[in-house]
Q: What sequence folds into this?
């Protein structure tokens, strides 16, 4: 345990001593909150023109997190860079010379980064929610209403999992460019194409982002899914775990 | 002490390192010599547990590297390739390494002081010169005050002052009783620093010997003679029991250090001489002879595809006698 504590401290030093950490996380908060706020403003202005049905099933919580679709990009960038910087700079050789127990190295690095991302995710979640509700005015919901707190905490968890997924995948792929090339289409193109065609829509529901976002919905009609909010998050946890396990095996077997 | 036992590394069909067995002992500088692409860096990475051997074993003071909880206190290494984040300050680079091995923070200042980088401790290595980067790498290697030190081509690209500094440092560390293992593709560099010599060519062990033995058994001495009357000189040498070899340029070469005797004989028989000079074959020649058949005809840089190269590139630009400028 003493050994793990040392490696955790070391990884925390690494994390806080490079600029990329600060900028990607600040970007994640600002983009998510900013875009969400903008959409809340437009929605409020447009609310009276919406169909009666849409008004009846209006999900004020979910709408206030719309910006996360783009904000998660910055979180992905954080996850990718935390890991890929080791490889692209050659730091990995110093790191593994100092901590040759590769499993411990991975767990400590991921744990420290996840801790930080969790805090930033919760700040983003609550911040974005309150800002969005304030801007929605009379159409807003309160945090005490059923399911809302779960959705807000879930938004932060979603962001955390995005970062973790990116970390695991980058341990497999190592290169920042390749990692982005794989992540981007996965989240923005494949997910979009599959869900736009009726036949493949059901498959798309099991992609990490589509499954994960269910946690942010409060009104059941917002997302028509065969699983509930926690079920959706669990699917995303599964993806993340798979990426991390794959990352561990690649790290263990391949030359540094 | 570092022990290698049948260490082997294959990349697919390519045999980068083949059945290396030798021991690096404390108290002296052991030079690890071989042409570029001979497998030196691969061997060193395997010693540090960074690359997995295809077969064989490496032990650090009897232990496997992966079992060391505080490896920086056992072995410090400066690898040829850069091994640091250019955006992390020198201080923080050393801090994260020190923390992972439970080393006290004062070691950071001591290490920076030792390599003369205290003034730039809070600077990012992005702005460092090659020499400063090299010094930071050495500070990292010295962080845990290890008994074993490993340097991969430490003088590459350094200015003369930096080269002298590193040479002195290695000798000093060995004098303190530490194990010092240093690689180079330059025989001249090894001749200046190493007490013991391990030579590899194409991943195979070519020699494992004391430097002094290598010098005495490999440096041939002979006398070169030039004369306008070579026929008479040959007869004179033969009749006095001296064997000679006719060189391509028309000169004669007599094995051994017989300069005075040949001079006396020539004077006695009134034979004009244009040159009478003692010669010593260089250690480079010996090294080249040793590894001549094994010179790797491929570029060696990890996973890159193999390409044909000119001899000067194969041997490195600094290799004397091969179109390089020496060092």
A:
């Amino acid at each position: 345990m003493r050994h793990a504590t040392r490696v955790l401290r070391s990884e925390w030093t690494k994390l806080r001593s490079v600029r990329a950490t600060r900028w990607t996380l600040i970007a994640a908060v600002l983009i998510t909150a900013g875009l969400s706020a903008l959409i809340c403003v437009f929605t409020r202005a447009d609310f009276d023109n919406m169909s009666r049905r849409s008004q009846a099933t209006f999900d004020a919580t979910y709408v206030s997190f719309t910006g996360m679709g783009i904000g998660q990009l910055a979180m992905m960038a954080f996850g990718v860079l935390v890991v890929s910087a080791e490889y692209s700079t050659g730091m990995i050789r110093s790191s593994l010379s100092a901590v040759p127990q590769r499993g411990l190295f991975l767990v400590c690095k991921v744990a420290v980064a996840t801790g930080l991302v969790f805090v930033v995710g919760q700040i983003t979640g609550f911040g974005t929610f309150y800002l969005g509700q304030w801007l929605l005015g009379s159409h807003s919901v309160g945090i005490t209403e059923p399911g809302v707190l779960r959705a807000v905490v879930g938004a932060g968890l979603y962001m955390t999992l995005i970062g973790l997924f990116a970390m695991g995948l980058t341990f497999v792929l190592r290169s920042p460019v390749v990692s982005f090339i794989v992540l981007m289409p996965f989240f923005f193109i494949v997910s979009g194409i599959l869900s736009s065609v009726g036949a493949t829509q059901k498959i798309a529901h099991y992609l990490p982002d589509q499954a994960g976002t269910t946690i942010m919905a409060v009104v059941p009609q917002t997302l028509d899914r065969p699983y509930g909010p926690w079920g959706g998050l669990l699917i995303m946890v599964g993806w993340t775990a798979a990426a991390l396990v794959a990352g561990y095996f690649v790290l263990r077997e391949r030359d540094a | 002490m570092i022990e290698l036992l049948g260490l082997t590394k294959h990349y697919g069909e390519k045999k980068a390192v083949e059945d290396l067995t030798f021991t690096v002992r404390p108290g002296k500088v052991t030079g690890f010599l071989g042409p570029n692409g001979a497998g030196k860096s691969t061997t060193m990475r395997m010693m540090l547990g960074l690359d997995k051997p295809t077969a064989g074993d490496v032990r650090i003071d009897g232990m496997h590297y992966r079992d060391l909880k505080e490896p920086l206190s056992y072995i410090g290494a400066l690898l040829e390739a850069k091994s640091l984040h250019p955006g992390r300050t020198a201080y923080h680079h050393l801090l994260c390494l020190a923390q992972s091995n439970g080393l006290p923070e004062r070691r950071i200042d001591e290490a920076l002081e030792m390599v003369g980088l205290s003034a730039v401790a809070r600077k990012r290595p992005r702005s460092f010169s090659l020499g400063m980067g090299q010094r930071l790498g050495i500070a990292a290697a010295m962080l845990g005050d290890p008994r074993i030190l490993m340097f991969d081509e430490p003088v590459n690209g350094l200015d003369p002052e930096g080269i002298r500094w590193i040479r002195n440092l290695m000798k000093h560390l060995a004098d303190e009783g530490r194990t010092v293992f240093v690689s180079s593709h330059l025989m001249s560099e090894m001749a200046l620093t190493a007490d013991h010599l391990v030579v590899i060519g194409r991943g195979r062990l070519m020699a494992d010997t004391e430097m002094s033995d290598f010098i005495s058994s490999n440096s041939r001495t002979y006398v070169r003679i030039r004369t306008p009357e070579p026929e008479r000189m040959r007869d004179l040498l033969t009749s006095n029991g001296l064997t000679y070899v006719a060189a391509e340029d028309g000169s004669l070469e007599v094995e051994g250090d017989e300069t005075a005797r040949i001079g006396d004989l020539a004077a006695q028989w009134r034979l004009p001489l244009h040159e009478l000079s003692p010669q010593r074959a260089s250690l480079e020649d010996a090294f080249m002879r040793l590894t001549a058949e094994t010179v790797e005809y491929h570029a060696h840089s990890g996973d890159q595809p193999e390409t044909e190269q000119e001899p000067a590139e194969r041997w490195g630009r600094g290799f004397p006698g091969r179109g390089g400028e020496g060092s």
